[in-house]
Amino acid sequence: MDLELTGGTALVTAASRGIGRAVTERLAEEGMTVVAGARTAGREPEKLGAGVIRPQVSDLADAEQTAALVDTVVAEHGRLDVLVLNTPGPRIVPALDTTWADWAAAHDLLLRPVVQLAVAGGRQMRAQGSGTIVLLSSTWVRQPAAGGVLSASYRSAAAALVKTLAAELAPHGVRVVHVMPGATGTDRMQAIVESKAARNGTTTDDEVAAVVRDIPLGRWAEAREIADVVAFAASPRAGFMTGSAVVVDGGAVRATY
Fold first, then answer.
1. How far from chain centre, in Å, is Cα 10?
2. Is 90 in the same domain as 120?
3. What does 150-189 look like in DSSP terms, one character per residue?
4. Is 85 helix (H, G, I), strand (E, B) or coil?
């Protein structure tokens, strides 16, 4: 299926590895110029399929860098067609063991940069009269897990923001979609199971087995599978989808809404 993304410009944050990297590669394969923001971004553009990946040093923990990111992309490429809001995961810790420093750090990692980028990207797309914003978060917004209070809390706030933006931007031809991955085979997921194993006195194999037992499809997702959903949601093929929250989790979340 041609997703009709060829020739467009995308910005993906936290794009150096995991789901962010997979999304970056997928959009480039569809023919987009993808600005890949990351703290450790390289220097040379990378040709991939019909598109190109252009590294952009961007530390989401730095408010000034984040504030300038959309303007930087537009100044160089003239427009912004797709904005994928991806953020790293915060510390895994029980709620009663958190400190205010944990909350402050998670805020600056998960919520502030999403607000900055979503507002800046939304204004640019409103002026263009087109564009799609995709928030990548977690099924913990829908079904919180032990130790995930920081992620669930701030990602829930980000979910409310993009739901509001979807309504505000729809009259201007701009769509906003929320994609919530479940357990996915990334370095982040490995860190989570290692943390659980240390806390529970188990092994990582035990914790992986426990996660998979709760997934009806019987396995973790691959990052590429999440990227496929993001690429579709970002494309004109999903042109009547906005304000939607899409769960990609192998059936793990049992909620009916």
1. 13
2. yes
3. HHHHHHHHHHHHHHHHHHHHGGGTEEEEEEEE-SBSSHHH
4. strand
Whether residues 139 and 216 share a domain: the answer is: no
pLDDT tops 90 at residue 124: yes
Structure tokens at 243: 């304000």
The model carries a pTM of 0.93
Distance CA 238, CA 56 (A): 28
CA distances from 47 to 7, 35, 93, 227 (A): 14, 12, 40, 18
Distance, in Å, from the CA atom of 220 to the CA atom of 193, rounded to the nearest integer, reads: 12
59 and 161 belong to one structural domain: yes
In contact, 132 and 234? CB cutoff 8 Å: yes
Give the N- to C-terminal CA distance of the chain in Å, as an integer: 28
Considering the domain architecture, whether residues 44 and 136 belong to the same structural domain is answered as yes
Please name the residue that has the structure tokens 């919180």: 144
* Beta-carbon count within 10 A of 122 CB: 23
Task: Tell me the per-residue pLDDT of 82-120, one tens digit each, with 9 for 90 and over.
Answer: 999 999 988 888 999 999 999 999 999 999 999 999 999
Yes or no: say if 150 and 193 are a contact pair by the CB < 8 Å rule: no
Range of the domain at 204: 184-220
